[in-house]
Design goal:
This protein has 416 residues and is an alpha+beta fold. The protein is 46% helix and 19% strand. Among the domains are: 150 residues, no CATH class; 137 residues, Galactose-binding domain-like (Jelly Rolls, Sandwich), CATH 2.60.120. The chain is elongated and about 90 Å long.
Length: 416
């Protein structure tokens, strides 16, 4: 029985199909193992550029850890698995270049197989001695990918070195969008950049957007003394943010003596108008102390806005006393009077409430008078030499007496 005349073609086609199947299987196995076992991925399929990139970076990360004293027993994949962007922390620039050079050969082989590998380009940039060539590598690689954190750190480094603070801020934004867990590394960098005058407009533009990390960064920056002044400027140029943050910013600015900035931020966020030249009615709003009221809220010693929003209810249990309500006012800088009404009980204890005025930040009062039942007018003829005045209402209920309760009307400041 003779073979069909087409058998050679069938054999060739079968061999080709088997070869393609083997190569496809090898490629699939290589792709599946390239993240956790890149060396195995290369044994199975030597042309896997992604696996070569992993091998190059793992080798560099292990060398950096060893140079920093982390020890050889450290997991060589740790730097990749945790999304680290601090490859060079604790390593000098010269040492990092030397270590990166050893991994550079594998990185070049990776790019030869896959020309758009951002981390391989990052390794080449780290190993580059010529600063201009390094800049060119980073710039070109960043055109291919804006999501790799290691590459973005190099972009950030170059922008910071060149004084491109706006570009640096945008770069950090891109990093934090991809790796939000890296905020501990980059918030200090951002806070430091915020202290550079030229960077403030860029921050205002960036933070005007509802970025996922914005409120977290602002909450970090408000605790950095060097960032308070520019943070105030930024806050005046952006919309609504977390109320707790705004409260802390106003309070921190005031506590650090930056009263003008604190008042500007307060008026921006509260929409409160500036005081009138002749007469101003001050309600009991307690949103943003110290330019709104700070009300006591303790067991047996409490002030709160009543059912009528223009009334302040006070309650002082026997044995309690102190400042029950306080706030700052801009100094009228001429004789003025504070007018308000008190409906207190028991009436004989009303005298244990006093109005105390002092310069902001000073403990020594320049004015102190007791309350009377009904309408009260406190004429202040002595003008203190300070831009802001602290207004405090003190209340006390002595041990063995009854609880002191009452309602206060809003204050009215009348200027002579």
């Amino acid at each position: 029985m003779s073979l069909p005349s087409a058998w050679p073609r069938l054999v060739i086609a079968g061999l080709f199909a088997v070869t393609v199947a083997v190569i496809s299987a090898a490629h699939a196995l290589s792709s599946a193992s390239q993240r956790n076992a890149p060396e195995l991925a290369l044994v199975v399929f030597p042309f896997n550029g992604h696996a070569k990139e992993r091998v190059a970076y793992n080798a560099l990360a292990a060398s950096v850890r060893a140079a920093a004293g982390a020890g050889e027993e450290a997991n060589p994949n740790a730097a990749l698995d945790d999304g680290s962007t601090s490859l060079g922390l604790g390593t000098s620039a010269a040492s990092l270049k030397s270590l990166a050079s050893a991994a550079g050969v594998t990185a070049r082989e990776a790019i030869a197989h896959e020309p758009l590998l951002p981390r391989a380009f990052a390794i080449l940039a780290l190993s580059e001695q010529d600063l201009l060539r390094k800049k060119t590598i980073v710039e070109r690689a960043s055109l291919y990918s804006r999501r790799d954190p290691i590459l973005q750190v190099l972009v950030l480094e170059q922008k910071g070195a060149s004084g491109d603070y706006v570009g640096a801020i945008d770069t950090i934004d891109q990093i934090l969008r991809v790796r939000p867990e890296r905020y501990k590394e980059f918030f200090p960098v951002l806070a430091q950049a915020l202290g550079v005058k030229e960077a403030v407009p860029g921050f205002a533009r960036l933070l005007a957007r509802p970025l996922p990390w914005r409120d977290s960064f602002l909450s970090f920056a408000v605790n950095q003394p060097g960032a308070l002044d520019p943070l105030a400027t930024v806050r005046e140029n952006i919309g609504t943010v977390n109320k707790d943050l705004d409260q802390k910013l106003v309070a921190q600015l005031a506590a650090s003596g930056r009263m003008s900035a604190a008042e500007r931020v307060y008026r921006h966020i509260s929409k409160a108008s500036a005081p009138d030249a002749k007469s101003t009615v001050i309600d009991w709003r307690a949103d943003y102390p110290p330019f709104d009221w700070k009300l006591a809220n303790e067991p047996g010693f409490r002030a709160q806005i009543g059912d009528q929003p223009d009334e302040l209810e006070i309650n002082v249990a026997p044995g309690n006393g102190g400042v029950i309500a306080s706030r700052l006012l801009r100094n009228p800088e001429r004789p003025f009077a504070i007018k308000l009404a008190l409906d207190g009980s028991p009436s004989e204890q009303v005298k244990d409430m006093t109005l105390v005025l002092a310069c902001a930040g000073e403990s020594q009062a320049f004015f102190e008078r007791p309350f009377a039942q009904g309408a009260n007018t406190f004429a202040v003829g002595e003008i203190a030499a300070c831009p802001y005045v602290s207004v405090a209402i003190m209340a006390r209920s002595w041990t063995g007496t009854q609880a002191l309760t009452g309602q206060l009307s809003p204050l009215r400041i009348a200027r002579n």
